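User: Quick one: structure for sequence A, then sequence B.

Assistant: Sequence A:
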Amino acid sequence: MEQHEIALETQVSRKVMLARLGTGLVQGLLLYWLYAAGRDGVWPATEPYLMVPLLTALVIMPVLLISSLGHLQPRQIVIWLLAVLAVLLAFSAHDVWRGLNSHPFMMGWDHRPSHTPSFLMMFFSVVFFFIAHTLVRAGAHDGRRIARYGTYFETAWKHAIQLLFSGFFVGALFFVLYLGAELFMLVKLKFLHQMLQESWFNVPVICTAFSCGMHVTDVRPSIVRGIRTLLLVLMSWILPVAVVLVTGFLCSLPFTGLKALWETRHATSVLLGVAAVLLVLINAAFQNGDAKVTLALRVSARTAAILILPVVMVGVYALGLRVHQYGWTSDRVVAAACLLVAAFYAAGYLWAAYQYETWLNPVTIVNVLAAFLVLAVLLALFTPIADPARIGVDSQMARLAKGKTKAADFDFRYLRFEGGRYGRAALEALKLRSTGPDAAALQRGAAEALAWTDTDRWKAASLSTTPVAVADNLTVWPAKATLPASFLAQKWDAIPDNQKPDCLSTKEGKCDAILIDADGDGKPEVLLVEQHSPGGGQLFAEGRDGQWTVVASISYRHITCKPLMEKLRKGEYTLEAPRYKELNVGGRQVQLDQAYELDLDCNKLQ
């Protein structure tokens, strides 16, 4: 091992160090150029088929180059980076073509959209090339296409720790820079504080510092190995806890049933997360297969390898139930792809768990094959082969054609904002539909959706909510009270979603609606408190124009006081003048919020 480290020190020469730092600096300068172009709305930001591939390549390729220098031959680096560029161009071009890469929150002051890679494409591209680069580096190290599992293990964990600590290095550097800026501010010198507010300074410094962190962690393999060993040992001792919790969960299902699980509406993602945690912890205990492991960890790892399959199967059932009820969407297609990979792991680890003569050694085969499966799945998802947007739009349109989804329940917003070019094409077709009992409603809904702009993405979270839907979402208090007709008749889609509870915009949201005459004018106001995840309560009052808007709120500390809320629901309250009057400061009313006792016991209410 020491000879290997000496060889590595010799291999990673001063020239390599300078090349890595230079690569980081050039990356930072080019990324700043693209940032400035997007900010100012000038070329190349005006050309999405150029901007998105450039941005994607400049984020990923320099990191791969820095990691390759000193470990791959120049010819191998050129071939590898050309292959990376080809895949990134395919991903980026398809990302632009499908029309989901223009983000309203990236708009400049002139409201022109800045074309950037979609989040999913960028995130999974990083995952794709982390795996692919590990396979390439390990193969080059062993001089064979399929390397030894120990080499894959060493390379993958080294890359993970390099990325983690390089990011930590960047954060620590900026902490020191900000601390230095505050020191200079003490003597009225603002130059460093001003520089830290400028993107022309921050972007190149971040990239150069990251490349420096990559280099330092590369030439000190013993430090990286020590950190990895400590991290894996600590993680492996979490495995028995995870096994107990997952076993308890699975054993409780026959008694609790699955209904409560489905009502969470995110069961699949949670179960996928559980499966991923089990996989990581098993590998933390197994490592490269040569680590000395206690009997408790061996039993825990073998048990966890068996538990992954039922967890994944419950996740498959949960996703299948949602697809049967509501059809495919982009998120569900991605979840299905993740479940496919998880099912492969689950079957492989179950097989490994029953090989008693060798302690989980077959997982080495499963892990390598799963890495290639992940690459294949990601290639399918981010090319036209299995585009989630296309599959989702086709599914929703098929359900509409078969009558499984009524026109009144059809999600035009999904087609407009998450279906990309496929969704817009489907909306154009619906706009021209002239036959069928719901043709008029579909035409109207499609025309409205096509008229939305990207700035309407969030406020158009749903079409207008009907009075019946709002009434169904509300539990009115006191028990025999009735909501004002104007409150039920209001179209709540005109109010931004961040200014109203979910019960006014989605079918799933449920609220308590408490009628309170808060101003003593004889007309009740409506206090809405969400039932499932209550924050503060929002008090709605009717204005002179007949529109209901939020006029006040009740804090979370009152909402969580059950005796207090019970009295409000029963109408047991009186109106009192505030102890401190409002201040009029330059024509603006300033309210003094009364301090409350930290040891307030809400159970001692009178």
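Sequence B:
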Amino acid sequence: MSDLNHYSKIATELGVREKQVISTANLLDEGATVPFISRYRKEVTGSLDEVEVAAVRDRLQQLRDLDKRKEAIIKSIDEQGKLTDELAGKVLAAETMSVLEDIYLPFKPKRRTKGTIAKEKGLEPLAHLIFEQSAIDLNKTAEEYLNEELGVGSKEDALSGARDIIAEWINEDAEIRKKLRTLFIEEGEFVSKVIPGKEAEAIKYKDYFDWKEPVKTAPSHRILAMRRGEKELFLMLDTGPDDLSAIKIIEKAVVTEGNTSSEQVKLAAKDGYKRLLKPSMETEVRLYAKKKADEDAIKVFTENLRQLLLSSPLGEKSVLAIDPGFRTGCKVVCLGPQGQLLQSETIFPNEPQKKIMESTALVKYMVEKNAIEAIAIGNGTASRETENFVKNIGLPKEILVVMVNESGASIYSASDVAREEFPDYDLTVRGAVSIGRRLMDPLAELVKIDAKSIGVGQYQHDVDQSALKNSLDDTVMSCVNGVGVEVNTASKQLLTYVSGLGPSLAQNIVNYRNENGPFKSREEIKKVPRLGDKAYEQAAGFLRIRNGANPLDSSAVHPERYALINKMAQDMGVSVDELVKTEELVQKIPLKDYVNEQVGLPTLKDILEELGKPGRDPREKFEVFQFEDGVNEMKDLKVGMKLPGIVTNITQFGAFVDIGVHQDGLVHLSQMADRFIKDPKEVVAVSQKVMATVMEVDMPRKRIGLSLKSDPFAANTSSSRKDKPRRKLQESKQEVKESMEDKLAQLRKKFGN
């Protein structure tokens, strides 16, 4: 089937022009990636951004999948000899998969059912007579279908079989299914109860022991929590509206008279609903709610991941990294400016060994020997104790001491990637290296770890894993290409996410680099085995070569525009090198003079911006952060303390903040700002530095409640208590006023103005 029918639909849904959708679809079909299209084909797409290009891609794929299913259904019905022009038209007009499957249901090959068994007994004609609800003698008519050999020994056998057939007709009625689907979504409720006897085991699901809420408003995290509780056999979960409402809809559709046949149809309707339609609709609605919950959870995950990947990098500095510990000691490594491992040792500054002097001497020696500029300490076990040790051994003040989130570092250290990078070192060394490199460049290091292991998601193991992977891959690719990749130092894993490459070509680039030395120009990248023109076109603009012969090779300007920039420099009487280094000259470029059929103002403005600050890192500048001295464990916390913290994870109900006590605190949505907010992302981002007030310390459950409000205890002050009667009076007056206005509006509606 043709895509032409889809372009208009997608354009309407996204609020863009049909021409933009067609152009984008053509580029995608030609093998172009989302980052490439949104960055280097703005004239073609009408400047659609990454989100819009990805939406065109995903929606077009959905509609193409729908088309394939339509073709398969039409073929199946045709092979049964039951295809009519009207039926084919209904199939082709179906806009969703559920509507399509409803149309196909009566023709779908099915297992032996009560209805098919009744048909085998010859009761279908009786079912038709009853369903027509004409005035017949039901008892006499039913007697005509008695047949001992076929198992129809009584009138009730005949009527029961006929009802089974009618129940299946009702179940297969597309219009009835459509109405019930709407009812289940609009009026359905999640009803969760604890399985008797499991109260103690299921304590973490206590909120859902006796819980009820509408399907259409239930938030993602509660849907996924209830489903997980059900999966772990702690909760019983039902989904659906009131049965009477559903049966009433069916009866209105199928009961046309008030005779004895109609009573049989009513019985069939009730049976058809409870035995067939209700379980089917419940399954559908649960899948619908799960899909919606998955989409919300994946959106939260990907937004958190983007913020984490784009955290401020320290940059190319010599770093000493420490993976802290108690009994087994602290693994210490020194890394060069490009992240290369220079030295590794183990120190024991903490309990039980407390070898302070030896540890101090070794750290000072490593710092001096390797010209260390910063120290990265993992935020796991013994982190605060190790931080205190480092800060008190008399290192030069200019050496930064930074706590680094080590979530997922252990996953990396045991991975094939780590073994390939450091085959001669154990897990502890690899983990320390990862901590140090995270400080230098979070993006370059975190791409080596499965995003699900980084710890910024919500119920990530419960959502659709395929959809999650696709979304996370899109996010990582967007971040990698948005920042740009230094081709001469990037790992294979980082290169894999560059537009147009992938694992195989990334490995080929690394192999070529190892065999021939650093790339001297982007043009040389074409010499990499199996890297053809298409891959080069997609990747070149996102690959950087610092200090190369051509200054443009370190910028985001695509090589296909080099000739244009040469012309600009020539017209201004300077070299390209001079143009790039002189921002005043760049600002004087008359952009409109260079507009042509291939290049428009959007691309020219991007070029101008890039020439002004070639190769700049779009991430924010690194700022040093320190936890509160003396607050190292939960027992050190007191309600009312104001402490510095770092946002580690954002959910729909709030944000988790690391305040340096080995247990993140929760800032509930209601405690995130002085004003009302609906979404935590309105005020915080992952890796953001905040000042949080301790509101609650629950040692047994290891829970910390925090607030970001400027004065979270204001509601408990004496002045607020004094104002309470006044506020109550004001609220009462407002309620009376609103009530009078409502009544006045009703009277106007009834009698006119």
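The chain is about 50% helix and 10% strand. Residues 716-741, 749-753 have pLDDT under 50 and may be disordered.

User: Thanks, that's what I needed.
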